[in-house]
Design goal:
- The chain is mostly helical.
- Belongs to the autoinducer-2 exporter (AI-2E) (TC 2.A.86) family.
- Keywords: Membrane, Transmembrane, Transmembrane helix.
Amino acid sequence: MLPEAAGSCRGSRQLTISGCWKVEGTQHGVSFGLTIATGIIAAVLVIAAAAQASNVFAPLAAAIFIIAIVWPVQKRLQSWMPKLVALAITVVVTVAICLGFASLAAWGFGRVGRSLVADLPRYQALYSTMVTWLDGHGVSVAGLWAEHFNVGWLLRATQYVTGRVNTTLTFWVIALVYVMLGLLEVDNVRQKIERLDNRTAAQVLLDGSAATATKFRRYLLVRTKMSAVTGVLVGAFAAITGLPFAFEWGVIAFVLNYIPFIGPFVATLFPTLLAMTQFESWPAVLGVFVCLNIIQFAVGSYIEPRVAGTMLSISPVVVLFSIFFWTFLWGLFGTFIGVPIALAILTFCAAHPSSRWIADLLGGPDPAKPGKI
């Protein structure tokens, strides 16, 4: 009925005014609704696949992110020397930088850890005082320890930690293999895209890839700056309050801040443990814990999302949602890679007219397009 009605309306201006716009509007609405429904179903399927096959897709996502970061170095080197030699230099430098960050964290925790071990008698005295106070209020700590922290729990915890270490090592080995192969294939992939018959798709892929890589590098720069700010503030606070190892706490905060939420929590917990043996009053210990959390919250949840949103054209709400969402899907690594994935999606959406509205909706404020309320 709809095609016949539309055909009859084309011959009559009166019917066109009164009825054809309704028919064409209905067809357009149905088409738009089907497109939206198809997009939602496809997104749900992709998310389910990413969650179920995280061991496959997570190392690939890490490799793509690293390739985007180090490709300018590889490109510059291979213009001067053979490609394999340039690849070897790029991979060695990348691994050395990663190991350097890990070494900084190990150095800081090593120095602080020796102090904590030396203060074990004080922690034992604090524990005894706490047990006595709780027993006086009807809470049996010994019973809780016997019920929950036994040999079986210790074995399960050891197995879990061992499994996580093996999984992490396997993850980064696979990611490193992807990086080496990917760096060798960047030029070939670009040439294949340029030869595609679908010129629109080719242009979207080329422009989107270049813009995404640029935003990845900008994101890492923002993260480094915010980590440095966090490290300086934490170190300065520790020095002002007289907390030992102020420089080490700043280094630890700087390194761990690359892992959103989880890293700052660890960087806050250990200074508080040290404060328990350095200060005589519990209010002072609580004050250290609260002030460190204020620093981490102010930088990580207020300043950084807004700086990233301004520099990367992404909404601060999307930044926080991406971190929580990908942490839920991929765990600790998802905490780090969540924002880059959101950047890539929005950048490719902006590269095509039909999906540009998504980037405009979820992107950062655009001064060239003032909104109206």
